[in-house]
Specification:
two-stranded parallel sheet, 9 strands, three-stranded antiparallel beta sheet, alpha/beta, single chain, binds zinc ion
């Protein structure tokens, strides 16, 4: 596979990671094109990863739409599911719950149980940690009832882009701590994304600017867990495409992480 190696002899791998919670839109198309063009230019492997951990808005039609749209857009991938049936049988993130759970043990000393409701979070503005200060209460974790959060520190996170440039994001003091395990008893988006990127050997990620803050969070979480190789992953963020009404089209994966 000499043609899949860079001049430094290192295999590069990126991924397109749609969420089947709606039909793919022009924003997804732009991201897929960006990822695919970059992979071709770098002789990198493109993996299709479908982020189905949050099934609250999942519909089979959305899953089918991923494959039909990618075909229509002429996007080809070398790793990942071949079709909806193959995805459900071999690639769903729900088949990897044990793995996400085992990996979470690396964060054991940093997690705290949080009983705040979605309503508490919606009402609260400029909160540090969570509205009811659950970290200070050191509550017991009750699986399927309490969420697990990790306290992250304020400061600037800086990383290299796939194209060699640099990016950074500032983490303010007054923001909620990210959820790593939800009240519904499932790993949250950030945690799944970290573990998948590591397990799949992803080296380079292109994602929309709506996920800039997520990149900073994921890097901090991975560092706390001692996943040193995550620090080597290059992340680039592109501008978001607007729909006909001028609304920015984002990946929309973060509802469960508030
Ligand atoms: Zn709380």
């Amino acid at each position: 596979m000499a043609n899949c190696r860079t001049k430094f002899g290192t295999l590069k791998k990126t991924r397109f990671a749609p969420t089947p919670s709606g039909f793919l839109h022009r924003g997804n198309q732009f991201n897929a094109r960006c990822v695919s063009d970059w992979a071709k230019s770098e002789d990198a492997i493109l993996r299709l990863r479908i982020d189905d951990i949050d099934r609250s808005r999942f519909r089979h039609a959305y899953l089918e739409d991923v494959f039909s749209r990618l075909k229509e857009w002429g996007i080809q991938w070398q790793e990942g599911p071949l079709d909806p049936a193959d995805f459900l049988k071999h690639h769903s993130q729900h088949l990897r719950l044990q793995r996400y759970s085992e990996a979470l043990s690396e964060l054991q000393e940093f997690v705290y149980a949080c009983t705040c409701s979605r309503k508490d979070l919606q009402k609260a503005q400029n909160v540090e940690g969570c509205p009811n200060k659950c970290k200070e209460k050191a509550l017991d974790w009750i699986p399927n009832q309490t969420a697990l959060r990790v306290h992250l520190i304020q400061g600037t996170e800086t990383w290299q882009r796939p194209d060699g440039g640099w990016e950074s994001v500032e983490r303010p003091a007054l923001v909620p701590d990210p959820v790593v395990w939800t009240r519904e008893g499932l790993p949250a988006y950030h945690w799944v994304s970290i573990v998948d990127d590591l397990d799949m050997g992803i080296t380079d990620v292109w994602r929309g600017a709506d996920l800039l803050e997520s990149t900073g969070i994921q890097r901090q979480l991975a560092r706390l867990a001692g996943f040193q190789s995550f620090d080597q992953i290059r992340f680039g963020h592109h501008e978001l495409i607007a729909d006909e009404f001028g609304n920015k089209l984002s990946k929309s994966v973060l509802s469960q992480n508030q």
